Amino acid sequence: xxxxxxxxxxxxxxxxxxxxVPVPVPGPGEVLARVRAVSICxxxxxxxxxxxxxxxxPAFPFIPGHEWAGEIVELGSxxxxxxWTIGDRVAGTSHDACGVCQKCxxxxxxxxxxxxxxxxxKQYGHSVQGADAEYVVQGVKTIFALPAAxxxxxxxxxxxASIALHVANRGNVTxxxxxxxxxxxxxxxxxxxxxxxxxxxxxxxIERNPGRLAxxxxxxxxxxxxxxxxxxxxxxxMTGGFGVDVVLECAGVPVTVQWALAMLRRGxxxxxxxxxxxxVEIAMQRLVLDELELVGSRATAGExxxxxxxxxxxxxxxxxxxxxRFALADYPQALATFNDPGSGAIKIIVAP
Length: 352
Ligand SMILES: [Zn+2]
Ligand SMILES: [Zn+2]
Prior knowledge:
Blueprint: E1 4-12, E2 15-22, E3 30-39, H1 42-49, E4 67-75, E5 89-92, E6 95-96, H2 102-105, E7 122-123, E8 135-139, E9 143-145, H3 152-155, H4 158-170, E10 178-182, H5 186-197, E11 202-207, H6 210-218, E12 222-225, H7 231-238, E13 244-249, H8 254-262, E14 264-272, H9 284-289, E15 293-296, H10 303-312, H11 318-321, E16 322-327, H12 331-339, E17 347-351
Parallel strand pairs: 10-11, 10-13, 11-12, 13-14, 14-15, 16-17
Antiparallel strand pairs: 1-2, 3-4, 3-8, 3-17, 4-5, 5-9, 6-7
Helix pairs in contact: 4-5, 4-10
This protein binds zinc ion (2 copies).
The site of one zinc ion has 9 residues, from helix 2.
């Protein structure tokens, strides 16, 4: 094992470089993995910009990255008890929860009540060092065996695919439902696949970026261009005036949350995974009188293993949302491409 590795180090908001840093050492219940592919997430761009001061990350310098795949190169003590051996191919996720609090024992470890408490909870690439590096240390609760049929690049998109499945689960999509999705980014597009997996009869993607609208259409979804005309009126028109059974809110902008609620059928349900940075005014009268439901959806809670066979079967089309690939040394170019709305970027894979 080399003593040092290349890593993306964010020194302070908007200032980062590739540095040689020590290879981390796995502790009890942890593994050291050679990262083969890591995908850029919207959260990474926020972390680099310093949008969550003192929270994600708690302090700079910081190594982000949490959607990755690679192979195990070293086992911390006890990791072998869970069946792991050196050379195993794995896909990683971010929430390393306590496993003991009430939410964890209910299986909702994404809501761990010990979130961020040192020694009890970690979120890789958010509250502790992430995978934008040649090597990463993660706990055994956050790594999942990657099937031989899936490449490392596909493995790096299992975490967002599991988040897309989680939001469709939170939306309780039922066979025959008409589902609308606000935002045709990676979660929105994979959320469309997740809605179909749960039996949706129609999936309508609402987006204004022309490249993303074209991608949604190419993947076989109905599309509504929110840049021209009122998307709520259009969706109502497309559904005989009734509205949709479920909306998956994947854009995270106040107005898209308002659209989402306004385009629901009576008794409909909106599951929100986008995180607006400001408050949103909600039409409460309609929510009460039409018995609308609005639920949050955070990360993933048990969907990592469940989503992998769906990727293998081509029903969760992670390949279709991968648009670019860069070496870790070219991270500045990779991030600039990710942040450029005209680039056509959806999922960008970085290879350390
Ligand atoms: Zn992510
Ligand atoms: Zn917990």
